[in-house]
Specification:
Blueprint lengths: L1 H5 L6 E4 L3 E4 L5 H4 L2 H16 L4 E4 L3 H10 L4 E4 L5 H4 L13 H9 L5 H5 L3 H8 L1 H10 L18 E12 L2 H21 L2 E12 L4 E12 L2 H15 L6 E13 L12 H21 L13 H4 L17
Parallel strand pairs: 3-4
Antiparallel strand pairs: 1-2, 5-8, 6-7, 6-8
Helix pairs in contact: 8-9, 10-11
Length: about 325
Amino acid sequence: MAREIYSEYTDKIEPYGIDEAWLDVSDSGNLKGSGMTIAREISHRIKYELGVTVSIGISWNKIYAKLGSDYKKPDAITEFNRENYKDRIWQLPASDLLYVGRQTNKKLQKLGIRTIGQLAESDEKLLESHFGKIGNVLWAFANGWDEDPVCKEGYEAPVKSIGNSTTTPRDLENDLDVWIIQIALAESVAARLRKHGFKCKTVEITVRDNGLYSFSRQIHLRQPTNITNEIVTAAFQLFKDNYKWEYPIRSLGIRAADLVLDDIPVQLDLFGNQEKKEKLEKLDRTVDEIRRRFGYFSIQRAAMYQDKVLSHLDAGTHTIHPHSYFHG
């Protein structure tokens, strides 16, 4: 196996997908030689011990190393260093950059951004206004400012928050539209909280309208929760308190923060209805099980049937990026 070969050079091996991995060999130089020397040796061994070829990228950060591995295939070694990266990387299409998908690339092109260099030299605030926090991330990635370390295999970073956001299938024009999307997002966030054994003490929303105005607001809860109804109720109240409908809404997000383990005892809320909370918790877990067995759309809340376009959003397929990418 390739990873058995990798492990002879470093214990810092972070799998990426099925057949890729990042290796940090910065502590191996005294024993094994330079990054290029190690890459050539690994390439040779994989070819002759496993009978397959491998494409290797070398750089001082994970993002550029990934670009290097994709630069030439199927049997090549590409090094991007601090002296040559602007000449070699910045001319590449922005779509080659990690996390620039088809839709993001279309939006970048509308802004006149077609290469990684143009992205790197763009106004970071402009990108943030169009893409939210991911705009800051892409700007940093384009400039090679990725400080995310290579983690040892099996390492799991501590979860600091869980959230989902979406650019909506159409612009949202009223409170009901917002309620439908927030239900889908809250269901996904709450389900992940339950899956990982957490409750949240803070709910945060992000809103961006089609006039490109965006904002975030948060509320601290009286009791930690992973109940869908409590999360969406808090999120919707935040929205109503802070948005005056000058423009239709383009994107929404919900984030659960200040996480605590769900088995930690909490003081009973004298002003709450504990019996109702227990019923809602049981209902959520029943919905989780039904969706696990029969799929996300096998059971839906009644509100989701009021708009076929908006209710078609499958929040269960959203990707949550590592917390370190968003520095939130």
